[in-house]
Structures
1.
Amino acid sequence: MADVVVEQGRLARTASPRKRASLRNAMGRKSTVAFFLTLPLILLIALLVLYPAFYSVYLATLNKAMTKFVGLSNFTFLFKRETFWMVVRQSCIFAITAVVFKALIGFIVAHFVHNIPGKKQRKWRGMLLVPWVIPPAMSTLAWLWLFDPSYSAFNYTLSFFGVGPIPWLGDTFWARFSVILVNVWYGAPFFLIMYLAALKSVPDQLYEAAAIDGANWWQKIWHITLPMMRNIIAITTLFSLIVTFANFDIVRILTSGGPLDRTHLFATWAFQVGIQSSDIPLGACVSLFMVPILAVAAVFILRDVNKRGNEA
Amino acid sequence: MSTLSIDKAGPTRKVKLRSMSRDRTWALRWSYFFLVLFAIFFLIPPVYMLITSLKSSAEISAATNPWWVFHPTLSNYVELLTSNQFLRFFWNSSIISIVVVIVTMLISIPAAFALARMKFWGSATLATGVFLTYLIPDSLLFIPLFKVLATVQEFTGIPLLNRWYVLVFIYPTLTVPFCTWIMIGYFASIPKELDEAALIDGASWLQTLTRIFIPVALPGLIAATIFAFTVSWAQFLYPLVFTTSIDQLVLPVGITTTLIKGDVFNWGQIMTGALLGAAPPLIIYAFLMDYYIAGLTAGATKG
């Protein structure tokens, strides 16, 4: 409707020769303008995201020197390696444990922040979001120093409680624990902010009605808070699952996969195999194993985001 | 009937002796108690960075109480801020982040405008595609991108690997999808009457965008800018893979690779560098917290 008005107005005003007018019409036409406005975006995604993504599938079928097509032998080679299955297991443990703790801490702390009076909430929220703002590579360096074998500030503090020095990054269990701890520390504030925003959108009348009906705090959470926040919880958790599963910075700086590859994730192992040992096809192959879980999470996120869009 | 229900309610009321306001006070006290605990957990690393950055190497290796500075000194800061190498990292990071922010805005604002307002063939699919692109992590693309860059360099003779400017082309793949996505949300929330009025007055599509959409959606624009800046500033994997020479490194990679010399960790300087590297995002956050949080939550709530 609006288009017609514009074009008529132009024709009447300019009264230029027909040829120029038709060119102008073409330029002013909605679809042409829209095409030119989205062209940079389409080019960027096609050239630097989609093309490399499909190219890595091709790369994964080459030999180490990238001269010969070897089919699926890179994949079968990986399946036979003990380290590969360890990386699969570790990535799953890492992602699931970290996301569960991030979600729990975020949920609990969001309630505490929501409880306190409105004016002070801003200050606390600002303080609690700091881990998310610091670049992860920088904050992981601080954790590395906190975990330092000989000068560990944690071990210094623990020694007052009679707890012996803990080999934070030297022992398999503690290394995995530390890596997950740092990830939880970094990611929990994101959940906190999302949940806090969701908590604020739950109408107070529901809680008042529940209180009059004699509901205790647990019933309020179970029957009001959780159902009202279900969508946000789902989107945040799935999104965090993707990011955590593909995490690189924390493990790379904290342990570089050690001790004895016991903390390697897909990303860090792909880096070690593909870039450091310069076996690009095998590295591409390793990182491709992230695709299935990412795809599943993405499909669910998309469903929830669309659902939310329809509700609004 | 009504008397019966009152009888039933009676005993349950008696069990709860505390009044509602006293319940509230206790809930508040417990909330503060746990908030303090969590705040300590969340703030230990940055505070420890600050503590260590004020210590001299002698004090660190003396292994005194790590949580206290006995002889505060600014020598670490002086040393880093006068070192050409560190300033070079800072400069590389700054220039890359600023250029990436500009490129991101130039790509995502027009695209978001087209996707939010001009329903054209495939626009819905493209919007979904943009969101999906945002979910593709950097750790999936760094190996093929490395190979692509090497091949392009070989064919055209333009040096791409080990050059900081290649990051300006790569970073938008991380920033543009999210920025486009939240700008679509902000643009879609602008009432249709506004741009219809502009069109009737004879404004072109571009004029509608620059005169109406950008000013009205300015908060969203600021949120997207902050997001693009912090993502480019913090990116670690791509520069680690694509750049190796010391004069081409960005801050996060520079600190982790050059300040750690062999087995000698100069922790005072590393922590100072990390703190200085964390400073720009922290300063932006301190001043524009509300925009920062709006951008954070917009990804899931708008759309």
Note: Chain B touches chain A through 104 residues (CB under 8 Å).
2.
Amino acid sequence: MKAIAWHGKHDVRVDTVDDPGIVNPRDCIIKVTSTAICGSDLHLYDGYIPTMQSGDILGHEFMGEVVEVGAKSTLKKGQRVVVPFTISCGSCYHCTKQQFSACDNGLPADNQDIAQELYGQPMAGLFGYSHMTGGYAGGQAEYVRVPFSDVGPIVIPDGVEDEKVLFLSDILPTGWMAAENADIEPGDTVAVWGCGPVGLFAIQSAFLLGAERVIAIDHFPNRLKLAAKFGAETINFEESAVYEALMVMTGGIGPDAVIDSVGLEAHGFFVDNVLDQIKVSTFTGTDRAHANRQAIIACRKGGRVSMPAVYGGFVDKWPLGAFMEKGLTLKTGQTHVQRYLKPLLTAILEEKIDTTFLISHRLPLEQGPEGYRMFHDEQNEVTKIVLKPGM
Amino acid sequence: MADDAPLAATKNDKPTGLAARAVTINLPVDEVYSRFRDFAAWPSFMENVVRIDVLDERRSHWVVKAPMKGSVEWDARITEEVPGKSLAWESEPGAEVPNRGHVTFRDAGARGTVVVVTIDYDPPGGVIGKVIAKMFQREPAIQARRDLRRFKQLLETGEIATPAMNAKQFEEMGL
């Protein structure tokens, strides 16, 4: 089959590889009909995530048709399913508490060593996202082996097109959980850093969860325009000073909750970001965290910090003092996708959440490498690329 | 003053081959105990164990992969057995790699069962032998941690997680 494989920094290719097959009883195999490139795939593309190996198949946002099932899969051939990016067993302590991304058993035993060393305890497995997260082949391919297919995938009713539901795999639940983690109360003002896909879904979700105002912060005019379409007020950080603007816009109080949906590759010429950039380039630090620092400084006293953004390692000069003195609460984590699939599918079918607005480009799978380059270089115009095998 | 930390966590004069690993398994203690007590099934989740032949109630013959030389074999006997509580074994005198293991099982209520494995062995070649074994990923403490994870996976999910894309890759990768 054809698959998009990572071969190094800024080097992804279309490789021809062996077809997947059933290995464990709970597996299924799906024929991919749509798969997206995620903002977090760009962290791999830029070489920020360790433990990638040449030839690793990328992609963790995908859906398709079930073509083969293991003896203990509950799916049937021919069903259309969206697959969560987290590989979770459904039966360990964390899964029974609905903390699916903290699953004990999704990661192969040998692959758990790195996360155990780095984070203290290993996390769930992820599709197509380095060997630290399991070394599982990803969904930017014609076919994928899906472990624990009786727990993860959600069956999509006939007649609902792919593009409406594809983002259930990651960015929609991630944006939703970001808003949920902001513990929004009626009348709240929520500030969202980063109007990429997760940020834009977080904005929609924040309004659905009762926010009175949402303030969106980015520097890409097109992305801010999308944020405004959903009712957010906007701040372009290249044109306005973010802290000053927020303080005036919130009557000197600061936002009640702040959401960092930027993560470890924050843009912008700010002193701390430049220092981070030097540290990252010289391997003395791993993450650029300007947006996160700014969010903490802006957040009102006693407010909430929600962090859906991906961070991988260490960061300096994190404003721990401000965090403590103001009594902030931080909630974060990889998304517990399986927890949100049913309610969010319902919200999509009832047209409470708009998902298709995001897609700016549709390409055949074979043009995946070009898609990566475009998504990386043209972030104003390219909001989301969907790859379609056989297009 | 002595604290309550396990001996294997000591910073002072720790025996070279001593290690403790704990895992919590989301199943009742009796089930976890009886699955663990089935020595003949160990190779299904222990990567380095080629075979264990159960000789009688207390004795068994172990064939275990070893760095550089293929495998080592020894006879072991059970030295302690309290069903649902604890299990200990020790290699018979004359074993090439003298070793002993002790496992406790504790009912953890809604969380299932806590299994604590303590292993102690005399590495051939002492500290250097242990480093070499680590290089080959055959060091018992590393293996014990991975084996316990696989044991937990097998009990909790009915299978052992693998990134292998298909049966052919699984053959090449092994457990």
Note: The radius of gyration of chain B is 16 Å.
